[in-house]
Request: fold
Amino acid sequence: MFDRRRVALLALLTVAWGVNWPVMKLGVTGFAPLSFRAISMWLGLPVLWLVLRAMRVPLAIDRRDWAQLAGLTFTNMLVWHVLAILSIQALSSGRAAILGYTMPIFSAFWGVALFGERLRARDVAGIVAAGGGVSLLLWHELGSLAGRPLAALGMLGAAAVWALGTQQMRRTTIAAPTMAIAFWMTAASAVTMTVLSTLFERDRWSAPGPSIWAAIVYNAVLIFGIAQPIWLVMARNLPPVASSMSVMMIPVLGTIAGAWWLGEQLHWQDGAAIVLVIAAIAAVMWPSRPARVDGAATPPVPDRAG
Reply:
């Protein structure tokens, strides 16, 4: 399921997204969040365009696929980026990451409820382990979250819709390359973010300071120029549970990065959660053993579960 190239891309994705949680927290501290996201997207588009030019990826999307592209943009990017950037203002960066990455659990539920998927026993074990890790990481946050229910619910809602988008991305019939889809999804989201920022944040517009610009550039280059397209390629080409669980180290890295950089306190539950998250990834990603029939090994059936 994962060759060396995919492992390298996954490592890049994990580091870029994991570190980005404290970066985003820093970026929206004293700066309008929707404006922060809009500027990052607009600056990220040229980076993504250069990547596509270097890879000689055509940008054209057939007119008949525009409606499907709009739906994928809504579930994979727009809802996630709006709710996440608004919610992180009221939450610690690490705990916002943890709530956001309940996505694999929602993805499994969507797969069963809407798409008739059947989960293997170890998929269920991985989901339970991931859920246990998330619960442990939230152990000391329950009191503060109780005072900020809208932010917590916003992150959970973002995760649920993103999970649905992951399932839809796997099943899309758009003929265009995934990188082209990522470009137009980012462009549409940038336009929408700009409109929302103009409507709701115009009175808060100000010139970004040096630290805000650093966070914006980080998001533009590493997140919208590189990480987001990598994720969409994975989501389209791997089973949803596999692609979702493969990024479960991101909230762990986000929690550690937030503690180191922003001084967010860690507890023993954080270490236990790391073990559970690693176990969850191993349960889902470990290759299946070939079945044996009459003493002979037979190739495994391609895994479409989850």
